[in-house]
Specification:
Blueprint lengths: L7 E2 L6 E2 L3 E7 L10 H6 L5 E8 L10 E8 L3 E2 L2 E2 L14 E7 L2 E7 L4 E6 L4 E4 L3 E7 L5 E8 L7 H6 L4 E5 L2 E5 L3
Antiparallel strand pairs: 1-2, 3-4, 4-5, 5-13, 6-7, 8-11, 8-13, 9-10, 9-12, 14-15
Bound molecules: D-sorbitol-6-phosphate (S6P) and zinc ion.
């Protein structure tokens, strides 16, 4: 028996609505240790919301064969010279991939493989990004407006934030004379 009901998505803004849509926010105070310049982070208002994630999780977390759906809304801004960005993670089950589709704004999808090779893909409305298995992923807002993107990922992927908090990505995306520059990549 089918127990789920469809939800709605505004294709231009990414906003999800309907029964079962959940939301979390990440503020400057939630992002300790994420940015390269911790002093610059501490100098900002800790209540600033850097990003919000709406998600629709119609299967139980950990269900093999199910899929989750979500939209991330990432504000424009800088911590020092580093763009506002998501925490970033590997999937706990490393062999699980994901899709990202940009709905509005400008950004960069930063990808790092398990050999710590990092590169980024520019994000713009309509860009579709495949996050392969075994690949850490985070998004930076390189524009002047909200960046929103949809994600679809397996319900048994899980999230490993610890590895990134501990080891970081091997490169960071800085604003260099108004343009994104990946610093530290091979
Ligand atoms: C989930 C997917 C996204 C992120 C979201 C926030 O697998 O990759 O929904 O959760 O963009 O990023 P993070 O790194 O804080 O979870
Ligand atoms: Zn993910």
């Amino acid at each position: 028996m089918i127990l789920t009901r469809p939800i709605c998505m505004d294709l231009s803004t990414g906003v999800l609505s309907g029964l079962g849509v959940e939301e979390v926010s990440r503020t400057i105070s939630d992002l300790a240790g994420v940015f390269g310049d911790e002093q610059a982070r501490l100098a900002l208002d800790p209540t600033i919301v850097v990003y919000r994630v709406q998600s629709y999780l119609p299967a139980a977390n950990g269900t093999e064969g199910g899929l989750f759906w979500g939209t991330t809304f990432l504000q424009p801004g800088l911590v020092g010279d580093e763009y506002f960005m998501t925490k970033g993670h590997f999937h706990a089950k490393r062999d699980r991939g994901e899709y990202y589709v940009t709905s509005s704004g400008e950004g960069a999808l930063i990808l790092m493989d398990e050999d710590r090779r990092t590169h980024f893909e520019p994000m713009r409305p309509g860009s579709v990004h495949y996050v392969p298995a075994n690949t850490a992923h985070r998004v930076a807002n390189t524009g002047a407006s909200v960046l929103s993107f949809f994600a679809c990922w397996p319900s048994d992927a899980g999230h490993d934030y610890e590895t990134i908090l501990h080891d970081g990505f091997s490169a960071r995306l800085y604003c260099d004379n108004g343009r994104p520059k990946l610093v530290g990549a091979d």
